[in-house]
Amino acid sequence: ASFITIQGFTIRCHARPGMLVADNYGPPRNITFKDTRVLYNSYMTLSGPDYNIASYAGSNISILGNELGWSTSEGIHTSAIPSGPTVLTISGNWIHHTGDQGVLGPASVGTPSGMILATDPTSPGNYAGSTIENNFIEGQANHTPTGGSQGRGIIIEADSNTWIIRNNVFFRSPAECLKFDGTRVSASGNQVYNNLFVECGQ
Known about the structure:
Number of helices: 1
Strand content: 35-45%
Structural class: mainly beta
Radius of gyration: 15 Å
């Protein structure tokens, strides 16, 4: 798939990603998700993949001006393409109330962060040219559900390199507002500037 724009929808009450880019027949390219509301998604306890938006091995993917709320796991989840740069633009989104069991119910236990930007074991995690900017990320779960993880603003996870993260507002995250978690190999060469961090838990 290439050169597709999804714009202006409201997608609610679903189990798996509300909007998904998936590498089934080769990396999807030039896909835009814009001005859409993706709300209220929860799958089975501790199972994922109850994200609002996911991009698995796509490039030139744009996620622009969306409202992403009340998901058991992260609002945006990404993985990189197997070779070459994965170029993503994540801009102007409002991501809020991930992991809110008061709305989603007590079985909603997952990874309630605003974004987890990751890779898989076969990918170099090259995100050169990718930008996260002008997003408002607020109100992750204010507790750690049994067996789940703490809510964070953004996790740069595993091989996830050369992001530009700028001009974002992180508000009231129970754990880190921004976490570099290169436990497998690296989270290197990333640029972080001109962001506002308010009431970060760690």
